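seq as requested:
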Amino acid sequence: MAWRIYAASATGTSHVGKGIPCQDAFAFEADGERLVAVVCDGAGSASRSDQGSRVVADTVTRVLGERLRGDCAVLDDEDAFQASASEAIQTARAELMELADADKASLSSYAATLVGFAGDARRGWFFHIGDGIGVAEAVASEASADAPSVVSAPENGEYSNETYFVTGDAWRQHLRVLAVTAPTARLALMSDGAMPFAMDKGNTGLFKPFIEPVARYLASVGENDGSRALLGTLDDPRTHGITSDDKTLLIALRG
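struct tokens:
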């Protein structure tokens, strides 16, 4: 069963009013039942974070995708997967350093968080630095209807608006991996701007009144039409009324 991926980013009204571009980015690579997907959120205080998000999302997805095509057994072992995720992030950091040198800018100017998933038909891993969130829901035959979702939660600092970035010196200490041990039927990755309406209270799982009608519609259309519809949802005045932040949501369905 192949993956179908629907994804969109919408610029928050707080950025539109100031002429600031969307600082979120996403990327994904699906090859049959193998999937690598990444969502990044640029720091609002970093002048080039939109570029940082794009470089990190594209590079990490590409490097991890190549790794899985070469040896899918990397998914069997936590240490092996963490090493592969670290390698992909280090490659992205190296590209940002080259960009910073060319732009005569600091690496911190490209600050971005990262939440990603890499897996296949049997299992997978979340990998995560900073805020944003990832949710994996098992196929019906692998879990009861009320089985808990696997949630890769955000990591914030001492204050709620403080988090950690791929560009930080301590990025390795803040890289977290989380096993998804059952086959995944529905995956969601999102920046923190989408969390207030897409996640339930306490961030224990997806908010059913939101995700169920969205997922039913997406399952009925192709990826391009579904992604356009998802963008319309994220860019809707009612959604902007909940949060003025940039919003990115990636939904992957398998089945």
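DSSP finds eight helices and ten strands in the chain.
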